[in-house]
Amino acid sequence: MATLSRRTTRLLEAYHALTPATAVQAAPVFRNRSGASYSKDTLGDDFRDVRTMVFGPGETRQLADFRRSGTVEALAGDVSPSGLSSKMANSISVSNRLHKTYGPVQLATVRKADEARKAGRTLLREQSPDKS
Hints:
Layout: H1 6-18, H2 42-55, H3 66-76, H4 81-88, H5 96-102, H6 107-127
């Protein structure tokens, strides 16, 4: 389920007031100028056009995938996999493909895993009956 700020809610409600049809739950929220739903390519193209018209050619803002940035922020804040799954309304807690897509490698986590591996290696060597 999406979490929207009050401002975003107002903007979305104003946008919906402009749309002629009643939205159904599975319908795309945003549509392009022709009325068709945006594809992954056309949304970015339109965003760049509007960005240039509003802010000029030197503007560099980007339309970011908020699923990814939100996931990165939640992981940095130590969310559990099941908590992240609930937030994203999918099975990310059990899906490696989804986790790789939305939860890129976290350097701090990699370093923590390396340290744990070193500690585990030392512990296993100490416990081994045939210490060399």
